[in-house]
Amino acid sequence: MAALNNLTEHLEAFVDVTRSPTHHAESLKAIATSLEKGVLSINQLVVEMDMYLTTTDDVVRARGILLLAEMLDYLKSKPLDNAVVHSLVGFFTAKLAEWRSVRGALSGCLALIKRKGVAGVVTAVDAEAVAKSMAQSIQVQSLALYDRKLCFELLECLLEQYPEAMINLGDLMVYATCEAIDGEKDPPCLMIAFHVVELLARLFPSPSGPVASEASDLFEFISCYFPLHYTHTKGDEASIPREDLSRGLSLAISSTPFFEPYAIPLLLEKLSSSLPVAKVDSLKCLKDCAVNYGVSRMKKHYKYLWPALKDALYASTKTDLSFGLESLTSPGFGMGEIHREAVNLLQRLVKQDISFLGLVVEDIRVNMVFDTISRYSRYEEMLDTSKLEVLVVSQILSVSARSSVESCNIIFETFFSRLMNTLGIVEKTSTGDLVHNEISTVSTRLYHGGLHLCIELLTTSKDLIPSSEECTSTPESAQQSWCSIVSRFSASLIEAFTSAVQSSNDDCSADAYLGVKGLLAMGMFRGGSSPVSRSEFEKILTTLTSIITANSAKTVKWELALKALVCMGSFIDRYSESEKAMSYMAIVVENLVSLVRSSHCSLPHPMILEATSEVCSTRPTYVEKMVEGFEEAFCSSFSDFCVNGNFKSIENCSQLLECVTNKLLPRLTEIDGLEKSLVHFAISMWNQIESSVVFSYDFNGREFVEAAMKTMGEIVGVASVDSQNSIIQKAYNVISSSTLPAMESIPLTVAALEGLQRDLSTRDELILSLFASVIIGASPKASIPDVKSLVHLFLVSFLKGYIRAAQALGSMINKLGTGSGGTNISTDCSLEEACDIIFHESDSSKTICGSETFLGKICLGFCGSLDHQTRAITGLAWIGKGLLMRGDKRVNEIALVLMECLKSTNSSGNALHPSTMKHAADAFLTLMSDSEVCLNRKFHAVIRPLYKQRFFSITVPILESLIVNSQTPLSRTMLHVALAHVVSNVPVTVILDNTKKLLPVILEGLSVLSVDSVHKETLFSLLLVLSGTLTDIKGQQSVSDNAHRIIECLVKLTSYPHLMVVRETAIQCLATLLELPHGRIYPFRREVLQAVTKALDDPKRRVREEAIKCRQAWTSISSRSTPF
Amino acid sequence: MVSGLINENPIVYEIKERRDVRAYSSNTDELSVDAIDQLEVFDILFVRLSNSKALSHHIRDIKDPEHPYSLEQLKVLTEDSVEVDDTKSHVRVTFTPTVEHCSMATIIGLCVRVKLMRSLPSRYKIDIRVAPGTHATEAAVNKQLNDKERVAAALENPNLVEMVDECLSPSFE
């Protein structure tokens, strides 16, 4: 009873139109749940609602019916009694006639009709009754938008679910649809309406059926929408996009062949319009029609269709054919949408009916091209009209040829020999030799237009060769007559293309382009039935390779040939053509690799390397071969340098290494097996260095060492742990055989270091740098032998000025296991022990790493020379970075030492040298910034999250207090530099949390740093931090409080002479400040405007542009009386 | 003031593609100087000038602007109509009213002048003129636009200033 009481309440709530929609939805929901739970049956509901459904109050009755309909919609998947459904549908059908409650009636019918697969569906007889009632009593176009949509949905549903019943109704449904669509303007409704037409067409396919007899009327109603055009595009995002609707219309138009007599003329007329949208739509629609109307009906329109299509193609083609590198594998000219659709249509028509091709073949315009082609030899000389002719005809022919094997045969039979004749290319005789007669001497006549045509045809036809599987199923037949035509000409064609390439000179890229493209087309026929024989294929390869090897400068021709070879290589790999792969290997790969090996050839070394690496990366086997070649080349050049002092060889070596780093390493994931070969390469580098004991000549530059370090580090970085171990072991052996271990015994005292004046030998330096790179790249899991002495070695060598050693030490410290619980069991030294060695104290054995340590003392200038001091600071920074990233506490002590160095005097009262302070300030950049060369993800660094934040919170307060107490201007500047490094490298959110505290310091920093041009980069990064705080809501309050100081500072920076970006950013910041409360900034307008006006005359355009915007913005807040 | 639109159906031209000759290559060199050139002045004029507002006095009354075109599309101003000499600090802008009796010519000219005054360094002398033979009262308009006193006086008229500001305010299209 309670449920029923509630029900009445809910019913009242829903029926009452004065209540809010949320109220309505709630009561609806409540009733639906009780129905679903079975507390209330639908019968009960109807009985209960009796009064609402039959009352004479129209509004209440409409609401009541709507409620019942909504309920049925909720219960779509709940089984109902058949009798109930029958009576309900009868009720709603009857109500359709009553306009006041039409929405409820429609929803009710729709909800019932939609029931599918559950107990209680509407019977066919009832559905028929619904349709009849709807057709007779509803005037769709007089209804509101939502109701119209319901009508169309109901129609759609009826046609989809009760096709038999609808067929019984026959004419009535077609009339009803026509009437409903007439005048509809809303996209969602139209979308459904178009589908309804499609369904009708499917339902009545017979030529004597109602659709056939009403075709003209029905078509009239839908064709008036073509081509679709939206008049109101804005504010209607939820609506259906134009493309979808246009697709729906196209499907409706093409739905039945009975529309054909009306549709095709209309579409052809629209195709001739000048509106691009109309053209595209009619081409798309014509394609759909061609598919659905069938060949026999389309046939009678061919004679109108072909010229229209041709015109569309002519009108949409541009004449600027590109002879560039990028168009080697594409058509070479831009394709608009119209063009694309026209091409699709043409292809469809030819594919569907070969007789359409007759029109193409007999077309005068097409044929004329073959007669006029020989009028011009160069493309640039051609008139625009003849360029257009050539391009369009080549498109038409290639598209038609692509459609089917049959069409391809016809095209080749009709045109190819003619084309060959015009070009002076002769046939192969039955014996296989070329006919050598008078004509062949003329074969050097090259007509660009003709060549283009020829290449287009060849390129398309290659897609028609069936792949090997298909080949076995369909017997080799005479079907492929085009193949035999091509093979008859292939030898001379290749010759013609070759001569085109060879005759080309630098100022004309067209010759080279067409030649290479032709060769590429000839080389891309796949499979056994290829019209190009193996020997001919090899000839193509030889020609292209010779172009690459013969040119001594990087010309267009060279690049084209290289790209063609790469294309062919990847083509061979894709279709796994083993025979061709062998030829490719023998001719291209081996040739190039042998060029890399031999140090003497006309081609510049970088070009050989580029060509080889590009060509070889198309297939794993080639890569292997190439890396082998590289190895050999490296070894021979290196020993050539060591023995003969040939500087050219060492230059080659560094170029080779650069090629490995830049070209091969980035593609590691793409090429299988590359890693293994590269590791082998790295080991043989070590072998080579080991075996060349004596360097009779000194290096004349750091280039080689740099390149070697980079390559070595990156190879180790990408290698697996096992390979890393083997490289490390090898490298360690080399180290221990050198004179370097001697350094390990040097005690860490100043006297000993002073005594070690002599620099390392060149070889030792190379070995040390390479070894450091190996250590930098190694992962934490790799095992490093004899860590203790290595730590010592690196320590001594960075004090001697080898920064790489400091970086290696940092990396090592970063990755070492943490003693007993360490992850790495194979290392014999834990982090603690390593730190012991580094920070060993001069007097006691306590391990802290503050200023009492040996390194700390050097840093602070208590002992050692200035050189030692700066080196120690740099080294300490790298070690600190290693510790910082792994989250080790000892970094705090290091930071303290570094900050100590920034004070003007050390604790014993001696003044610190300016360069010491500068290095100490830069050390903070090393600590905070992300490094490219070491300690990053690529080199497997151990990185604890938020390490920057932690360092920030420790150092910033100390730096701030030091700034306050700083004694000399220099020290103050340096402290600001250090602070700027810390602040600008921390994530911006951290800054925003501390804006209040930081803003005054940042502003002071900006003014201090702007004094000297040395600090311009630091100044800029600090300015960026400031600009970050200005735009954020979090920083707004403190920005507003400091507005006067910020503006003062920024105004100064607008005339900063040393860096344009600083001026630009300062002006942008000024513009941003306008977001502050008017009262805060208004007093400064005069000052700002003055500064910005000055900036209008800035030497840099970008600054001026910003100044204009900023000035405009600031002017608008000042009073009207100052227009300028 | 005229209440209707003066030229109800203007010819709209396609906008010429901007030549992108300056790829900001000089950015790395701090000392090099980018001289103010024709294109820059042209850009200055086109950052903000939009005809939909310039031509209609009753801007607030118009919900759906009849001319949503820029001065560039109407060929009132073209790149070639701007002459700049940076060394002599002189710029001359020649504009072409859409119709001969366009009473908006002075307003457009005034807008152009104010825009340039606000955007170019103060060392510049600015000349604005109507293209010869394109306006009925060409001489009068030219004289008015280049008369310092009259321009200053015009800008003391709050209504006029408001209108100019309206033209120059950023249009969100």
From TrEMBL, chain A:
Belongs to the MET18/MMS19 family. It is found in: Nucleus. It comes from Brassica carinata (Ethiopian mustard). This is MMS19 nucleotide excision repair protein. The keyword DNA damage applies. One of its GO terms (biological process) is protein maturation. Residues 653-1073 form the MMS19 C-terminal domain. InterPro entries: ARM-like, ARM-type_fold, MMS19, MMS19_C, MMS19_N. PANTHER family: DNA REPAIR/TRANSCRIPTION PROTEIN MET18/MMS19, MMS19 NUCLEOTIDE EXCISION REPAIR PROTEIN HOMOLOG.
Automatic annotation (TrEMBL), chain B:
The keyword Cytoplasm does not apply. Residues 59-122 form the MIP18 family-like domain. Pfam families: FeS_assembly_P. Keywords: Chromosome partition. GO terms for biological process: chromosome segregation; protein maturation. It comes from the Eukaryota. The keyword Transmembrane helix does not apply. Belongs to the MIP18 family. This is MIP18 family-like domain-containing protein.
